[in-house]
Amino acid sequence: MSAADVRPLAIAITTGEPAGVGPELTAAALRQTIGQTRERWPSAHFTVLGDRDLLSSRAGGAWPDAVDIEHHALATPAEPGKLNAANGRYVLDLLDAAIDGAVSGRFDAIVTAPLQKSTINDAGVPFTGHTEYLAERTHTPRVVMMLAGSGERPLRVALATTHLPLKDVSAALSIDGIVETLTIIDHDLRAHFGLPAPRILVTGLNPHAGENGYLGREEIDVIAPALERARALGIDAPGPYPADTLFQPRYLKDADCVLAMFHDQGLPVLKYATFGEGINVTLGLPIIRTSVDHGTALDLAGTGRADPGSMIAAIDAAVSMARHKRRA
């Protein structure tokens, strides 16, 4: 056994928007997870990134002994539920530090609490979302956003396009792009999730998957040719299926992932089925990143009523993925 095999898995957690629920959810999740993690993943160690005073006040008690706090100072004190653009760059500072640590090998995975995109943009930094920012900072030409539930055979939904206006989705789809997306999903499900032969069901774009061209030709001209090419590469990717009927147990029982064509095609179904326990994973990166499946919940910040279930699942997934990557 090498030294790398016995080194504790180092997991970084960014606490996100300081006016939101991220800091308190991180504390609550780690209190519940430390014992479980010590039992299931005895080699994990956690570093929480954020303002030390903020984290102390939102923790509602002491942080677990197995957690290190990496201090990054707020620009101005944060009040629960009250956004302040002055702290927009603070949020990116946490993310940058975690990314740099993962790229350098200091961290084996990062978990991100929710941030507020508007606060970062109001701070003068153009920002679309975690997924796009991670791709840019790691110089990754294509990444894939995947949300997942929990359980022995969880529902997983990946996206061919992410945060685009609906009117731009068709033009963003290409044969090469879909093949690259399927290649990333197939690779990461094998390498990070331990699935030896992933089966990826693919939706169409249009109602009824285009109805043989009467309701749109994207299925005929783009999606079907992409799936044929992907299958020639050894990727199990049947489709395209009508999205309104695909999400049924009889179709999903043998599936490891569904690839939807746009954000609001696949994610409403997944969030309805898994909200509060689901996670967001960015596939295709040179680093491992998981996140919660919800936003900053400003109305719950500081109340102690926010549910840490999704953060617990994200932490557990990060540890599991890091373990699979180390063993690969």
Structure description:
This protein is of the alpha/beta class and 328 residues long. The protein has two domains: 1-140 and 287-328, 3-Layer(aba) Sandwich (Isopropylmalate Dehydrogenase), CATH 3.40.718; 142-284, 3-Layer(aba) Sandwich (Isopropylmalate Dehydrogenase). Helix content is 42%, strand content 14%. The chain is built from 13 helices and ten strands. It has helices at 3-6, 22-40, 52-59, 88-104, 117-122, 130-137, 169-172, 175-191, 218-232, 243-246, 249-252, 263-274, 309-327; strands spanning 9-14, 44-50, 67-71, 109-112, 144-148, 156-159, 200-202, 257-260, 279-283, 289-292. Strands 3-2-1-4-10-9-5-6-8-7 form a ten-stranded mixed beta sheet, with helices on both faces. Helix 8 packs across helix 9 (218-232). The longest helix has 19 residues, at 22-40. The chain is globular. The protein starts with a helix and ends with a helix.
Quick gist of this model?
Substrate binds at residues 130-131, 271, 280, 289. The chain is an alpha/beta fold and 328 residues long.
